[in-house]
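Board notes (copied after class):
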Amino acid sequence: MVTVRGELDRVVAGRFLRDAFMELRPQRQNYVWVGWQSAIAMLGMSDLNILVKKAFDRGFIDSQVLGFEHFEEDLKTGDRASWRTTASG
């Protein structure tokens, strides 16, 4: 991922992922939402947690594929990731 490699500013990536909540199609269950939440978790963007919760609540992410609790665990891992300090500094 370009943000992990330091090629795209984390703020820009966060803005893209936040805007994607309204812009991504289809606005219904689709595997694209699994990738979207995965990027948020990998980057440890806990400020977008509420949008991910909404995506789960709206059924955009199949609960048979992934549960919100899995996202929360992945988010914790992203928050602790060592790349965050090395990529930003």
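Comment from the instructor: The chain has five helices and no strands. Residues 10-88 form one domain.
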